[in-house]
């Protein structure tokens, strides 16, 4: 099973709403990632979790709050977002060492619209 | 991490080989070359990686020049489903990678 599952597939939220994106994998990977992708642009790294601890935060605004409750789950909590935060949010996972660390498996993404 | 340069876009006729070049002239000895692709509205997909030897798997072949300054990803018989953005990345083992702008490949019927 090489699947990374993201829910929901689509999300529309107002600027005052609180919502969460969910990502799940059962490959035993101990590194998990959040990326943001705007239309016609490459994915941009947001956060990296390594062994359930946050290891990289690419200066992401605090209205995005990641959480890794266990080794299979990754959440992204959203609060007070702006319309410019509308994008495709991608989750990925990988093994946590060596060459395999750079072989990431991606989910299909959550397409977020902020009104 | 080595900077990579790829053409912005390429076309390929269906059934023909698609050869996607990547320049990484500043690559150092411990940096691997990785290729990913992203089909429209899907997450990126790992294709292949290599250090200095040519590599082949069920998806593609990777040819790395002897001086390692460039590489070519080969899709031997391109299909319409291979239409995607292809990303070439060069970095040492274990470093976090970042996507560049990639090559948009269009396979033409």
What does it look like?
The complex is a heterodimer of chains A (115) and B (109). With 115 residues, chain A is an all-beta fold. In chain A, 0% of the residues lie in helices and 56% in strands. Chain A is built from no helices and 11 strands. Chain A is globular, with a radius of gyration of 13 Å. In chain B, a hairpin with a 6-residue loop joins strand 3 and strand 4. The interface between A and B is medium-sized, with 22 and 24 residues.
Q: On the 0-100 scale, what is the average pLDDT of chain B?
A: 94
Instruction: Please work out how many helical segments of chain A DSSP would assign.
Output: 0
Share in β-strands of chain A: over 45%
What are the low-pLDDT stretches of chain B, counting only 5+ consecutive residues below 50? none
List the strand order in the largest sheet of chain B: 1-9-8-3-4
Helix-strand topology string of chain B: EEEEEEEEE
What oligomeric state best describes the polypeptide chains here? heterodimer
What share of the residues of chain A lie within helices? under 10%
Shape of chain A: globular
Assess the beta-strand content of chain B as a share of residues: over 45%
Low-confidence regions of chain A:
none
What percentage of residues of chain B falls in helices of 4 or more residues?
under 10%
From the alpha carbons, calculate the radius of gyration of chain B and give it in angstroms: 13 Å
What are the defining features of this structure?
heterodimer; A: 115 residues; mainly beta; seven-stranded mixed β-sheet; globular; B: 109 residues; four-stranded antiparallel β-sheet
Concise account of the structure shown:
The complex is a heterodimer of chains A (115) and B (109). By secondary structure, chain A is mostly beta strands.
Outline the secondary-structure elements:
The complex is a heterodimer of chains A (115) and B (109).
Chain A: E1 4-7, E2 10-13, E3 18-25, E4 31-37, E5 44-50, E6 53-57, E7 64-70, E8 73-79, E9 87-94, E10 105-106, E11 110-114
Parallel strand pairs in A: 2-11
Antiparallel strand pairs in A: 1-3, 3-8, 4-5, 4-9, 5-6, 7-8, 9-10, 9-11
Chain B: E1 9-13, E2 18-23, E3 31-38, E4 45-50, E5 55-56, E6 61-64, E7 70-75, E8 84-92, E9 103-108
Parallel strand pairs in B: 1-9
Antiparallel strand pairs in B: 2-7, 3-4, 3-8, 5-6, 6-7, 8-9
């Amino acid at each position: 099973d090489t699947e990374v599952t993201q829910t929901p597939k689509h999300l529309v939220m107002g600027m005052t709403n609180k919502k969460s994106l969910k990502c799940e994998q059962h490959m035993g990977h101990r590194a998990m990632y959040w990326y943001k992708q705007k239309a016609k642009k490459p994915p941009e790294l947001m956060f990296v979790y390594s062994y359930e601890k946050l290891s990289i935060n690419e200066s992401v605004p605090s209205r995005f709050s990641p959480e890794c409750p266990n080794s299979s789950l990754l959440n992204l909590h959203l609060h007070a977002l702006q319309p410019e935060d509308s994008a495709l949010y991608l989750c990925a996972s990988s093994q946590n060492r060596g060459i395999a660390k750079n072989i990431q498996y991606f989910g299909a993404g959550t397409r977020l619209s902020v009104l | 991490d080595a900077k990579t340069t790829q053409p912005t876009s390429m076309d390929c006729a269906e059934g023909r080989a698609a050869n996607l070049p990547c320049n990484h002239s500043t690559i150092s000895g411990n940096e691997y070359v990785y290729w990913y692709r992203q089909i429209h509205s899907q997450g990126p997909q790992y294709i292949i990686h290599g250090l200095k030897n040519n590599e082949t798997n069920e998806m593609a072949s990777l040819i790395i020049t002897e001086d390692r300054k460039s590489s070519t990803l080969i899709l031997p018989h391109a299909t319409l489903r291979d239409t995607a953005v292809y990303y070439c990345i060069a970095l040492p083992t274990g470093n976090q990678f970042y996507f560049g702008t990639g090559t948009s490949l269009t396979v033409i019927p």
